[in-house]
Write the structure tokens for this entry.
Amino acid sequence: MVASPPSARRPLSPETVQEISDWLVEQGLTGGTLAAILAEFCDRMVGRGFPIVRVHLSFSTLHPNFSAFGCTWRRQGEVIRDSYDIDAADRQRWQESPIRPLVEEGLPNIRRRLVGPEAKLDYPMLSELRDDGGTDWYANKVAFSGLDTPTSLIGIVMSWLTDHPEGFSDHDVAVIERLTLRLALVVYRVSLEQVAVNLLDTYVGRQAGQHILMGRIRRGDLERIDAVILFADLRGFTKASETTPAERLVQGLNDYLGSLTEAIEAQGGEVLKFLGDGLLAVFVLAGAAPGAMCQAALAAADRALAENRELNRDRAAAGEPVMPLDIALHQGEVLYGNVGSAKRLDFTVIGPAVNQAARIEALCEPLGEPLLLSARFAGCAGVAVRSLGTHALKGVAEPQEVFAPQSS
């Protein structure tokens, strides 16, 4: 932040405040990212003589990894986006934040003069803002309420900093309070949209989530696609569940499935569903040569198996039960879309190819192989393989030849 020369003040007229207010309502209707909206909002304020040098906005959210998101605008600088986890570092940062009383004590606003006889620097951040040239800091909040409000979206908190020698005027504070209400509506719209995306990404996967948000939610709304199908399963989970406390069992399962999911997503695949101690994933061939997608799926499987072996070594050394991983890969046409009842749908893949992949995975343990390939997958993957014979698969009319990579 550039602290010199200090901001000049031109009191905003009622017409100017209304103009900015109308613009905020328009942003709430037309979309745009919150960072871009905050940047233009602050630039408009400064351009009309409002003496701000820093504005911070934060709001709670519903996300598997973060409890809140924030944006910070600085004059003559870009908007910085931030996320707040629930780890020890963020908890300590929260305890030292001057915003905390707004949330935990229910205060509607809080103000701190940073210079002069009325200065009160009771939080570390306030001293930093003073050292950067700030003279007056003001924070306020707007709570979201109502029967239909998600409990994760409790409202927004904003803080405003000026470097004007006299700080904020009473008129400035009144303008801040009025415009924060309008900006809160924009944040509410953006945060609701982001929560929808976060939840869909978390529970059905990014690609399936995009399909759902595009309106493909009718029962029986399916499309035929070519895909690589990956079935994976952990061996030994049932035995471990009989001897391991529930909390440790779930933590171990999360470690295994987390590692497997990362390996799949790193190669462009998508996990469609977790199946207890296993999962179903697809690598969609649209726009890609079948050979390239098969190689991507094979790379994902190789990485997943390597990480599974490493995780098992660590768990064995710690006296925890180990769970070897079995994977089957098949390539074929599937039906991709909505299956279920009128009120409860599942976005998944179905078809003979899916069934065949599942049956091949069941052969991993009896054949003593952690990775099995169908004949069709082996034919398009372009890698050296060895045959493990022809096997009858439940629900598949003809016996199928099954392969393993030559290197395994």
Q: What stands out?
A: The first strand starts at residue 54 and ends at 60. Residues 170-203 form the longest helix (34 residues).
